[in-house]
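A sample follows:
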Amino acid sequence: MERHEIEVFLALAEELHFRRTSERLGLAQGRVSQTIKKLERRFGVPLFERTSRHVALTAVGQQLRDDLLPAQEQLLRAVDRAMAMGRGMTGLLRVGYSGSMIAEALLEVAEVFRRRHPDCEVEIREVQLYDPFGPLRSGQLDVQVTEFPVDEPDLTVGPLVLSSPRVLMVPAGHPFARRATVSLEDLAEATLIAVDGEAVPPYWLDHHYPRWTPGGAPVAHGPAPTYWTEVLNLVGLGRGVSPACVDAERYYARPDVVWVPFDDAPPIEYGFVWPTAGECARVRAFVDAFRTLGRGVSAGS
């Protein structure tokens, strides 16, 4: 049997209606009928019982359908796999994140992505703030969602995925903890705990952990931890204050830290970034999936 004959036979075996079969395959109804008659002459036995109101498989037709279906499914899988390989939609996609609120969204999108692209696997891992782009540059990750700004010549900045109001984490006993809001000028009255690391770009540090207020007052910097959990611990111990996004509070809330909103600071923004030289179909498809699933820009409350 030729491929088009198999397609016509199996479609009619499912539809049991010549007109619906012809519409499904985009063929003239007479072409469908001729193909079935040709097969029946070749086999020397009817495959369908036909009346003006009824179409049904004969016993031979049922057996042929049952024998052909697995072969057709295997053929279609082979074709789909070859097309996926041609599009680069196979293999492992490694996705990084720097915050638990982002991880939750990535895990949800990854499940849908796997169903859409069964020949792709998705691995999600946390990226430490002290080396924000190291895993991308070393090839450990293909794409990640990270805090903006990102201005690196070898990295492509993708779409924004989260915009969250900026807050100040302060010790529970700090004077700021009793206030409804704080301002950027208030940082001159506190010690700022800033994430440190030789790989952290200076422009990124200046944006999130300024050394001067907008009015020009100096901002004292205290301990320089390398991990986010250390920042929380140091704030809780009263060693200083540190900015964060409001969406992070439900993941990292603790009794010794109070989250006070800024009344004049820009939001903290998160977006996709990937190595320009490593852009591929898998990366583009994952980013598109994130956006089409409604995981667009959002604002914390």
In short: The radius of gyration is 30 Å. The first helix runs from residue 3 to 15. The chain has a mean pLDDT of 89. The chain has three domains: 3-87, 92-160+271-292, 166-266.
